[in-house]
Structure formats: C-alpha cells, structure tokens
Automatic annotation (TrEMBL), chains A, B:
<dbReference type="GO" id="GO:0003700">
    <property type="term" value="F:DNA-binding transcription factor activity"/>
</dbReference>
<protein>
    <submittedName>
        <fullName>DNA-binding transcriptional regulator, MerR family</fullName>
    </submittedName>
</protein>
<feature type="domain" description="HTH merR-type">
    <location>
        <begin position="1"/>
        <end position="70"/>
    </location>
</feature>
<dbReference type="InterPro" id="IPR047057">
    <property type="entry name" value="MerR_fam"/>
</dbReference>
<keyword id="KW-0238">DNA-binding</keyword>
<dbReference type="Pfam" id="PF13411">
    <property type="entry name" value="MerR_1"/>
</dbReference>
<dbReference type="InterPro" id="IPR009061">
    <property type="entry name" value="DNA-bd_dom_put_sf"/>
</dbReference>
<dbReference type="InterPro" id="IPR000551">
    <property type="entry name" value="MerR-type_HTH_dom"/>
</dbReference>
<dbReference type="GO" id="GO:0003677">
    <property type="term" value="F:DNA binding"/>
</dbReference>
Length: 249, 249
DNA sequence: CTTGAAAGTGACGTTACGTCATTTTGTATA
DNA sequence: TATACAAAATGACGTAACGTCACTTTCAAG
C-alpha cells in the first residue's frame, strides 16, 4: 500500500487528479487510513497506467470508465470509432491550417494589414465555405442509403478489406508508371485473385460495390476508404490490360 | 435594424450565441427597443461574419475580442502564432492516430481482445523509444538502418505496411488448410514479391530481420509488433514450399 | 505533546454555448 | 381595444478535466 504522494512521484500524476478520479469513481483507492488518507496498491497503479494510456489516445474519462468497467467491451469498434473521430479532428485542423497559410501568404503580398484588408480576405474565404456547404447538402438521398445498409460490414477492418485498401493505395503510388508497369500488373493480379477468392460466387455484389465505388459521394456515405475518380479509372484500364495479357498467355 | 431572429435566419447563429456574445461584450446590439429587444445593424452583421471566420481558424472568443478591439493589432503575428498552435495540435492528433492504427493492426492479427491483451499492448507501447533505438543500432549497420526505416512499422498507415499485416492476418486464417494450400501459396507469393520490391537486392538484411522475428524476446526488444510463433513457423514452411515449387517450374 | 508537512474537503473558475423555466414584450386578430 | 400567441428576455444549471485557493484534519518525527 502506497500513499498518494508515492503515486505522484512514480507517475507524475497530480494529487488533484487522483482525487478527481476517486470522485468520479474512475479509480478508487484500495484502502484508506483511519484518518481517511487514500492508499493505493499495485492493481491501482496498473489501472492508472491503463487510464493514462487510453487518455493519450484521446478518449474521455467517461469513455475510459465505461471501457474498463465493461468486462466484454468491444475494443476493436471502440478504437476504430476513436480513430475516425481523431481523423475528423485532424481534418478540421488541416482546413484551419490551409486557410491560415493562405491568409499569411496574401499578407506577404499586401504590405499593410488592417481590419479592412482582413474583411476583404474574409469575404473571399467565406464565399468558398458557402459554396462547399451548399454542394454537400445537395447530395442527400433516402433511397441510396438503403442500398448501402445492405452491404456487409466492409469497413470493419477484416484482413481482406484491409488488403483491398492497401492494394488500392499502392496502385495510387504507382500510377505515374502507367497501367502496364509490372508492379501495377502484379497488384492488379492480386486484386483479381482476391475478387475470385472472396466474392467468387456472387458477381452481382461486386458490381454493386464497384458502382458505389465509382461514385465518390456514395463511397463517402458508406464510409469507404475514399478513392478518387482518377484512380478508379486507372484501375479499370489496368484491369483491361491484365485480362488481355491473360488471354494471350 | 433587424431583429435577433433575422440574424439567426441569415447566419444560422443561434439566439443563445448572440446573447452570449452580447454578455461577454464581444458583439453588442446596435440598439434596443423600449422593451429591451436587441436590434442589429449592418455593421454588426459584418462583425459577426468576421467573428465566425476567425472562429473557423480556431481562435478563442477572448482572442477574437482582443483582435477586433485593438485598432492596431498585429494580424500577421497573430495568425502565425495560431498556425503554430494548430500545427502542434495536429501533431498530437497524429500521434494518437499512429498509436490507434498500431493497436488496430495488432488486433487484426490477434483475434481475441480483452483487458489482458490490452495490458500487454500497453506495456509494449509504453516502453521508451530509446531502448529500441539502442538495440536496433547495435544489430544493424548504417546502410541497413535505412532499409530498416522502410520496415513495415505497424503504426504507419502506409499501404505497404497495411498489406503486410493484411497478408499475415489472412495467412493466419488459412493456417488450418496447410502450407501447400493454393490460397496460402498465393499469399506467400505476394509476400515474396513485396519483399523483393521493398528490400530488393539485400537478402542478408532480410535474413537478419527474420532471425529477430523468430525470437520473441528479440522482437520485443526491437519494438516489432508481436506475431505468434506458430504463425511465424507456418510462414517459414510455406516459404520453403513456395521456393521449391518455383525451382521445379 | 508539539509541530510542520501532507492530506483531506469544499468551492469557484475555465470555454462556448445548450437547455430548461419563468417572465416580459411585440404583434396580429377578433 | 382586449386578447392570445409567438418571440424575446433573464437567470440558472450543466458540460470536461482538472487548477487553484481556503480552511481543516491527520500523520510522523522529534
């Protein structure tokens, strides 16, 4: 049994934090002295480490509490959701960064910067925002959602899906080399193999998938890994080459 | 002069927000009716737009207030500071993302995840980087270290790493079918291709890597992601078969 | 038994509003 | 003009994860 002071020494966590964790029933002391001083054991230290670790992943204390309390918590989904959340936040920051850089660049060109200048710049940037917003809102449709819901849990991180994504991303890297490059054709061959292995007896499903893939909006709705049009066309062309080569052989 | 309702209609900003801005003296109404209802003019609308815009850059309301109040505010420095701040935040999120990806990748390999598993993973991640660096330095020379950097690091979401993990995980699924099963051999062939693509003409390096991989202790010291022994042996055997088949062909 | 350090318990502050509950004002209609 | 109903106002509490007083009690050494 160690005192609260020992905890702060060993972990760097403040006394206040320990008391707070006790207060919200996230981590209670193993025991207390007669006078009410908190005493912690080895188990608590370990739990504290876990809490700290999960905090570095950006989870809220409430979420951490739920995770550690639920004996059969779905860690995979939990982490995936968190990853998605983090990615969204990163995207937001990315936009901020982009606008800030734009402003700073323009300010280098304009020599004098005051409120009036800024107002002009704001006008420009706000226009873009409104356009984007309008564009996105226009793309909503009820019927399309049903189709997407019928798809299996393709974004659930199973190895097959993962490889698909990995292969696509690799193709993107090799795009400059052209559809006939050996690396490209090897990847395409692997894709073909996987298509047969996984979806062999259900070609309609593949068609459906491909249709959604070809629509960026639908892909995004479905939570697919975003693939740009250029890449999709590249894949289609490379597949044609691949099939021709196979026929000749 | 327009009412608060008009403001919400035109800008989408809530009544509560307008009252709050009034309360903190960020944006006060131009006038009030006898009964105390807020009335805004064109100037206020513009200021409100500015506020909204600066908010999208991540500034706090207090900061925005200071900026708009100070007649000769140093916009350039202000924006630059904000950019730095944003970049730091992005970096933090990037680390979270990296760790999350690492965990998720490992979870694709392990099928069951519970608190005990997580504790093990936490142990690995909490290990300090210095130990790893030191260990790796002593094992590999300079040139090899360059290659080592290309080694699939489980934290990086790059396509090559993803495919490695996906292939490993798929192998695990197919283990029961034996080392000669066509699915297995196709995966092995793909692994071989990738090995050659990435590490090309340096087979000794691959041997050394493989040696570390086969020793759980060494792997852990090097900070590699954990792969169970059974799977590693399976891969080795399957590779032997693969190479024999190739010789015969 | 004293004494100073360490620990305890409230309580308030932080951000940018959301969400009641209650009261007052504005306005359209009978 | 009285009334009804919408809209606006005010005030208060809640949010997350503690930091920071202020004040009291307990612990351990001398």
């Amino acid at each position: 049994m160690i005192s609260i002071k020992e905890i702060t020494k060993q972990t760097g966590i403040t006394v206040r934090t320990m008391r707070y964790y006790d207060q919200i029933n996230l981590l209670s002391p193993a025991d207390k002295t007669e006078g009410g001083h908190r005493l912690y054991g080895e188990k608590e230290l370990i739990k504290l480490q876990e809490i700290q670790f999960l905090k570095t992943l950006g989870f809220s204390l409430q979420a951490i509490k739920d995770m550690l309390e639920n004996e059969n918590h779905d860690w995979f989904s939990g982490l995936q959701n968190q990853l998605n959340y983090i990615l969204k936040e990163k995207e937001k920051l990315g936009e901020m960064e982009s606008i800030l850089r734009g402003l700073l660049h323009e300010m280098v060109l304009e020599e004098q910067i005051d409120l009036l200048q800024l107002q002009k710049l704001i006008q420009i940037y706000q226009k873009d925002f409104h356009k984007r917003e309008a564009y996105l809102k226009q793309m909503f449709d009820q019927e399309e959602r049903k189709l997407l819901d019928m798809l299996p849990n393709i974004n659930h991180g199973d190895p097959d899906t993962m490889e698909w994504i990995a292969l696509m991303a690799q193709l993107k890297q090799h795009m400059l080399k052209g559809v006939s490059a050996p690396e490209v054709q090897r990847i395409i061959r692997r894709m073909d193999e996987k298509t047969v292995e996984v979806y062999g007896d259900c070609p309609e499903f593949i068609d459906k998938l491909w249709e959604i893939r070809k629509s960026p909006e639908k892909s995004q709705e479905a939570g697919f890994y975003p693939v740009d049009q250029e890449l999709l066309e590249f894949v289609e062309k490379a597949f044609v080459i691949f099939q021709n080569n196979r026929k000749e052989a």
